[in-house]
Specification:
Elements lengths: L5 H14 L2 E6 L3 H12 L4 E4 L20 H5 L3 H17 L5 E10 L6 H15 L5 E4 H7 L8 E11 L2 H14 L3 E3 L2 E8 L5 E7 L5 E11 L5 H7 L6 E12 L8 E5 L6 E7 L2 E5 L3 E2 L12 H14 L12 E10 L13 E6 L2 E6 L5 H16 L23 H11 L3 H5 L17 H10 L5 H8 L2 H4 L8 H12 L2 H19 L13
Parallel strand pairs: 1-2, 1-9, 2-6, 3-11, 9-17
Antiparallel strand pairs: 3-5, 4-5, 7-8, 8-9, 10-13, 10-14, 10-15, 11-12, 12-13, 16-17
Helix pairs in contact: 2-7, 2-10, 4-5, 13-16
Length: 532
């Protein structure tokens, strides 16, 4: 994360990748892989993490952005997942309070709709006791509508109000990767594991292809953790494993905040099929999600929302806020991710278990399933199996995930300091100490600071324009047309660090435009799928 030229830094890491023997190679750069790398590096292991696309490219940048305790899992009787989730949520809120923030949720109580008031409140009491604090309450009709003006589902008589948490999922991944790198891990995006085999000494030999140059590198590791999410079965099949994942697509809509200005997260059971849906304020916009569909598409192609999903989500919002009368024309962006859910032979997609599985198959340790909130527990489960292969001792612990955030300029506004602390943690002061007033202005229509673009370009392994605008910042889903209207100023701030030149920017812009049109805007003539 230092000031070394980004190209030189990558070349150095690639050279080191093939010359140094590694205690552990982590394959996969989402939240699960980041957690494994962080937990191993903190224990002094020599750790390499490789990601075939960009860090957080898959599910970990396309989630519902919630660090929640799993109230819905309590309803399904999954006490263990709920308990683990609640406790990990509380940990993240303590250790990274600017990045993982409390969010008030409101669930309308309507005559004849399930769950009823008393059953829901009983669930909330159990849920909150797991966290060691009680904060929910029942708001009568007038009070509920004061909390959420315009909320008027049929036969509403009040609302349950409780607290969960939200985050920027891609930035959470990056914060965990920062901690791994601080403790010595080497991190490479656009580096694909093409083959692996065990040698006579019990080590694993990998061939890793650098997608930027096309060059292949031999890599030796004592232990391998497969944390590739929905792609995990591919590596497992190479060592004789059987498929165990059920890919489920979750899609979301993004609206300009002015079109649906809410302070609460509105949670509901969809009037059509009783599935949980929610919408809430996020990053200066309003986020609506999510669906749950078996994903039949090619996993190497980015998932996209269907028209049926768009209609389904808008129907949920209009049920709660009939005066809003939202239509597809109000949607500024959309995105879809595929969750790696451990397979069940049958069952409704929305009720599939979100617990994780950890397997050791011929020396390949796979961790799959689970959820954003519980990544630390998943990482420790994986390392418990990997430790004998790595020849390292391992004991579970509750040590802090994050180094305390550095102090920031007291003359800056509280909002600016809060945002920079959230994104950069212990490096916040180092990365921002030269910022001027123009750097600290927000990009119109978002909470994003112009400074964030330059920091990402210089320090955060940006290889493509979508790395910058979809994951290091979220401008690609927060702004109409993926933020392309601001491209001239974006280039002005980032070119000194990216050094793409005119031809490079033309190529990256064309690539990005195609990507946004195909996967982050409303569907046009895509084949229909069954209703979510």
């Amino acid at each position: 994360m230092g000031d070394v030229n980004r190209v030189t830094a990558r070349a150095s890491d690639l050279a080191r990748m093939q010359t140094q023997p590694w205690d552990l190679v982590v394959i996969g750069g989402g939240i699960t892989g980041a957690g494994v790398a962080q937990q191993a590096a903190r224990r002094g292991w020599r750790v390499l993490l490789i990601e075939q696309r960009d860090f957080a490219w898959g599910t970990s940048s396309r989630s519902s952005k919630l660090v929640h305790g799993g109230l819905r899992y309590l309803k399904e009787g999954d006490i263990k997942t709920t308990l683990h989730s609640v406790r990990e949520r509380e940990r993240l809120m303590r250790e990274a309070p600017e990045l993982v923030e409390p969010q008030s949720f409101l669930f309308a109580d309507c005559t004849g709709r399930k769950p009823g008031r008393w059953l829901f409140q009983l669930g909330l009491m159990v849920y909150e006791r797991m966290a060691g604090k009680l904060s929910h309450f029942y708001a009568k009709l007038n009070a509920a509508q004061a909390l959420a003006p315009g909320l008027a589902p049929p036969l509403m008589r009040g609302a349950m109000v409780y607290v969960d948490a939200k985050t920027d999922d891609a930035r959470l991944v990056w914060r965990v990767l920062m901690e791994a790198q601080r403790d010595g891990a080497v991190l490479l995006n656009y580096a694909q594991a093409q083959s692996l085999q065990r040698n006579a000494k019990g080590d694993t030999e990998l061939i890793v292809r650098d997608a930027i140059s096309g060059q292949a590198y031999p890599v030796r590791a004592r232990a391998i953790v497969n944390a590739t999410g929905v792609w995990a079965d591919r590596l497992r099949l190479a060592v004789g494993g059987k498929p165990m994942l059920r890919p489920l697509r979750g899609s979301h809509l993004v609206l300009p905040f002015w079109r649906l200005p809410i302070a609460q997260s509105i949670s509901l059971m969809h009037p059509r099929d009783g599935r949980p849906v929610f919408f809430y304020p996020w990053e200066g916009a309003t986020l609506i999600g999510t669906t749950d569909l078996d994903h039949k598409g090619d996993l190497d192609v980015e998932a996209s929302i269907t028209q049926a999903e768009v209609d389904y989500l808008l129907e949920a919002v209009n049920d709660q806020f009939p005066s809003a009368a939202l239509t597809p024309a109000d949607v500024s962006a959309c995105y879809a991710g595929v969750r790696p859910v451990v397979a069940q032979a049958t069952g409704e997609a929305s009720k599939a278990a979100r617990d994780h599985a950890v397997l050791d198959e011929s020396g390949l340790v796979t961790v799959a399933g689970g959820k954003l909130t519980t990544f630390r527990l998943m990482a420790q489960d994986a390392l418990a199996l990997a430790a004998p292969h790595a020849g390292k001792p391992f004991a579970r612990d509750d040590a802090a995930l994050f180094t305390p955030t550095s102090a920031l300029n007291p003359h800056w506004s509280a909002a600016v300091r809060h945002r920079l602390a959230a994104r950069y943690g212990y490096l916040a002061q180092t990365l921002t100490n030269a910022a001027d007033d123009a750097d600290l202005q927000t990009i119109p229509g978002t909470d994003t600071l112009w400074l964030e673009l330059a920091i990402a370009a210089q320090h955060e392994a940006v290889q493509h324009l979508d790395d910058l605008l979809l994951r290091r910042t979220r401008l690609g889903i927060l702004l109409p047309r993926g933020g392309l209207d601001h491209l001239a100023r974006i280039r002005q701030r980032c070119e000194p660090h990216l050094q793409w030149g005119d031809a490079g920017w033309r190529s990256e812009t064309a690539r990005y435009q195609t990507l946004i049109a195909a996967h982050y805007q409303l569907p046009s003539a895509k084949p229909e799928e069954p209703t979510p």
